[in-house]
Design brief:
The complex is a heterodimer of chains A (about 375) and B (about 375). Chain A is of the alpha/beta class and about 375 residues long. Helix content of chain A is about 65%, strand content about 10%. In chain A, strand 1 (about 45-55), helix 3 (about 60-70) and strand 2 form a beta-alpha-beta unit. In chain A, helix 2 (about 20-40) runs antiparallel to helix 7 (about 170-200), helix 9 (about 215-245) packs across helix 10 and helix 13 packs antiparallel against helix 14. The relative contact order of chain A is 0.11. Chain B contains 15 helices and five strands. Chain B has helices at about 1-20, 20-40, 60-70, 85-90, 105-110, 130-145, 165-190, 190-195, 200-205, 210-240, 250-270, 275-295, 305-310, 315-330, 340-364; strands at about 50-55, 75-80, 95-100, 120-125, 155-160. Chain B has a four-stranded mixed sheet with strand order 2-1-3-4. The model of chain B has no long low-confidence stretch (mean pLDDT about 80). Classes of the chains: A alpha/beta (about 375), B alpha/beta (about 375). Chains A and B meet through helix 2, strand 4, helix 6, strand 5 and helix 7 of A and helix 2, helix 4, strand 4, helix 6 and strand 5 of B. Strand 5 (about 160-165) of chain A pairs parallel with strand 4 (about 120-125) of chain B, so a sheet runs across the interface.
Chain lengths: ~375, ~375
Amino acid sequence: MRIFIVLLKKEFTKIRRDSFLPKLILSFPILIMLISPMLATMDVRNVNVAVVDLDHSTTSHRIISHIKASNYFSLVGATSEFNPAMEGLEEGKVDVIVQIPDHFERDMAVSTPEKISITANAVNATKGSMGTQYVIQTIASALVELRNEKAPNQVSELITVQNRFNPTLNYRHYMIPALMIIIFILICGFLPALSIVEEKEVGTIEQINVSPVSRFTFTLSKLIPYWIIGIFVLIAAMFVAHLVYGLIPAGSFWVILLGTILFILTISGFSLTAANFSDTMQQIMFILFFFIMIFILMSGLLTPIDSMPKWAQILTYGLPPRYFVDILRSVYLKGTTLSELWQNFVALASFALLFNILASVTYRKQA
Amino acid sequence: MRNSFLSFVKKESLHILRDKVTMLIVMLIPVVLIVLFGFAISTEVNNVNVAVVAPERTDGVKDAVDRIAHNDYFTFCGYIEPSQIDHELRSGKVSAVIVFSSDFDRRLEQVSTGLPSTPIIQLVVDASNVNTAGASTAYLQEILLGTASLQAMFDTRMLFNPQMKSAYNFVPGIMGLIVILVCAMMTSVSIVREKEVGTMEVLLVSPVRPTKIIFAKMIPYFVISCVVLIIILLLSYYLLNVPMSGGVWGIFSVSLLYVLLSLSLGLLVSIVAKTQVMALLISAMVMMMPMMLLSGMLFPIENSPKFFQVLSNIIPARWYVEAIRKMMIQGSPFLAVWKEFTILLGMTITFLGVSLIKFNDKLE
């Protein structure tokens, strides 16, 4: 026990005396939490719309003014010719072109008019399709408004929509839990492994190897500082989310804490296991980089798992962050309870156990 | 003098080639990641789980449910009771619930004859994922109302990417992210490792000029990166079917410049950093976030606040992703990206210049 405390002290002193690590550990999470929610938004806004108005009627003017008023769009031009608008689209100045056909208003009064044509730049598939949907909704609301002015008694909304859990459709609230997870992955993934491999490369690990310290004690002394740092990161991140972005978890803090502890155990255990298989710092960084990129891009943090092809969805069951993404997002936004998420917790706990056992088993005292 | 430079390059190459494990990893990582992400990452709204609440399962309701069950976007998960709505949404089993009003059939008929009506369907949507919620609401309205819907009045066309493949959008972004990080990680240890181990002293007392030391260190990494680059481009074309209609040589030369830029950036980090740990953490972890958030690879830059839009101009990945998107997907020729090319060139020269100055400073 005394050996263990001495080792732990050594690790903390090492981190504290480093010229770079304390700054990184303190500022990285806070900066990421402050800035990235503003940047990590796939919310479709500022879609540049050009209207080609061939009708020149009250209806078409109403449509144009609705597009102008919407905060999703910026109207970049209303012309009566298609070609200039198309050139704008090719140059990237226009995202969506709306063409209102000739005699649209007249035909609509008597029968079905010619269709309004919408042309979108779909290089960015999300922006193309969502932008088109928003344009359709905006025009529809303009048409409904006109119809209601003529026949005020008619209720035209046949479908009402209730947006649960995030009624203001704030994309930042969706991303904040994900950004927290990215910070956990980066800090608890990269740092513990580097600290072991550095000792290997510099040669100080020899001294541990000839000492009576058991490999279990040694591994634990390398891990515990990062568990504590992980908890600090959680609290700092939750503070920033609350103070700056007004996001308070809808569910219990204790469920979040439990999930975070299990996740930190998993990632740091994984990191040490990888460290046991590499000899140079460059090597371990490349190996970790490979897995961390997969963790960040494929566990549903940035893009939904449901959108992936089937084989990739099956693959994600082997990625521990997948379960934590589910836990943190549901608890934070929907107030989901522990009993509703027990499968995720069991999966995460098994990963934590697996990687930590692997980390101490694969550590070899012989070179 | 020329000879000493060549032998120096040879020494560095042997140094790198002898570490077979690292070599293998460096070659494999970008290739595996780009193929994996190219296939897997997508933002298309798919497989949305839907449950239905219906007081009476009349023909009209069954017909509507049938249409949803046969739609590719939605998976019908059965009928539930109104009291279960909250639980089903919260546990994430379904993402949307369609609530039909009682007396649905009669009221639907009223609507079709043009009579006014109160709402007949309520959609309760899990809006925690904003984009999925928005898209599924729009699709559901279209399916449920069919021709009665206003959606039938529009004729839409998706240019450049008619099948709405997300890969088209993501491949340039992922290339931009992975190439710069992997290249920077390669060179970021080159100088600082010699400092840490102590062999730097030996190099400095040798007759080789400092400038040559730096170039000699970059050349082997540059060759490796070129091989990786060629593999990536071949895979994107043949495996991911990214069009590359703007001309292969244009894409290749911009990418080559980008590789050079990334290696110089790593070199700069290596000269500034005090330890290998610091150099690696800067080039992998610290740089990853701005490259991911400000390059436009996933998140459109025009969505971010003005200040960050201006800031994104100094992110090299942003210019590269923009140029590659234009050439790969929109099919613009090399001439159309001269601006991006010039900016990347300027950045490369700056990084190299600052590296040389800093390196010389340290020596004195």
